[in-house]
Amino acid sequence: MGIVVVEVCDGNAITTLNIEEILEKEFPEVAVLTSDCLSFCGLCRVKPYAIVNNRRIFGKTPEECLDKIRTAIKEELAIYQ
Question: One Pfam family from the UniProt entry (predicted)?
Answer without folding.
Answer: DUF1450
